[in-house]
Amino acid sequence: MYWTRRIDRDQPGDTVPQQDTHAGTALVVVAHHRTDSLTAHTARRTAARLEAAGYRVDLLDLHAEGFDPRMNEADQPDWGDRDKKYSDEVHRHMRRVLDADAVVAVFPVYWQHLPALLKGWIDRVWNYGFAYGRSRPRLAGKRILWLGLAGATAGDPVVEGMRSLLETNLSEGIASYCGFAHSTVGLLTDAEERPQRLDSEGTLLIGEAVAGSERTAQYADFDRRAEEFVEKFLAEGLVTA
After folding, report:
1. Nearest to 150 by CA among 204, 114, 185, 188
2. Per-residue pLDDT of the chain in tens (241 residues, 90 and over written 9)
3. How far apart are CA 3 and CA 32, in angstroms?
4. SS3 for 142-169, per residue?
5. Measured between alpha carbons, how far is 3 from 11 in angstroms, rounded to an integer?
6. Which of 32, 119, 179, 219 has the highest Cβ tally under 10 A?
7. Residue 191, strand partner residues
8. What is the strand order of the sheet 102-108 is part of?
């Protein structure tokens, strides 16, 4: 599944940075607590593909870097001063976002939404006065790819609702609101070794774990689908080579 939201930024007072002709910088953000997870694996493959295409990759592993997703007093928006100084940690992350031409977020889908670690990063870093609250958005012209890994099988009826929620929350509720020029959501189903789906009565059915050649084939297909999202991201000019 692949959804793209193009956002026009031709309103008076908005400044859209022009893309350079040389390879830019991609910020790859991974939100998972295990380095041996499929999420981390997908993030590493994505970073390698971007580097192979000529981009400087800033790989931000939120858990490994010890990012605290909890909003605190220092980073609570001061609606009377959009230029207030936030915590030093948040300012460092703001700089990494500003330095990126594109952002790729790789995460497991929890309850049809972002995990708390990634949501807290957005809450604290994409703050008032930085990512929104200005007539000339600082993030205008940037592109973003959201890669969400879901345990549901492709044929599970819950997937359609998941797709709709992610598209609304991520492309409309976050990317568009923060001035991004283009937001793409890619949902990667069949991320679990044990297939799971809801039946017509809403009961979760969990199958036997795949093994051997079947497991190899499943994850080879998973990698292929993930790579397709990244290739389309590149081909559509979301990161300009």
Report:
1. 188
2. 434 343 433 333 333 333 344 569 999 999 999 999 999 999 999 999 999 999 999 999 999 999 999 999 999 888 888 888 999 999 999 999 999 999 999 999 999 999 999 999 999 999 999 999 988 889 999 999 999 999 998 988 889 999 999 999 999 999 999 999 999 999 999 998 777 777 777 777 777 777 888 889 999 999 999 999 999 999 886 444 4
3. 23
4. CEEEEEEECCECCCCCHHHHHHHHHHHH
5. 24
6. 32
7. none
8. 2-6, 182-188, 143-149, 102-108, 25-30, 56-61
**Cβ contact 140:9 at 8 Å:** yes
- Whole-model pTM? 0.85
Q: Is 181 exposed, middle or buried (0-12, 13-18, 19+ CB in 10 A)?
A: buried
Helix (H) or strand (E) holding 44: helix 38-52
Q: Answer whether 199's CB lies under 8 Å from 205's CB.
A: yes
What are the residues facing 145 on neighbouring strands?
Answer: 104, 184
DSSP letters for 62-130? TTTTT---S--GGGS--TT-TT----HHHHHHHHHHHH-SEEEEEEE-BTTB--HHHHHHHHHHS-BTT
For tokens 């081909």, what's the residue?
Answer: 235
Q: Which of 176, 165, 25 is nearest to 104 (CA)?
A: 25
Residue 16, classed as helix, strand or coil, is: coil
The helices-and-strands tally (H runs, E runs) of the chain is 5, 8
- Tell me which residue of 141, 126, 217 sits closest to 173, measured CA to CA: 126
pLDDT score at 194:
72
Residues in the chain: 241
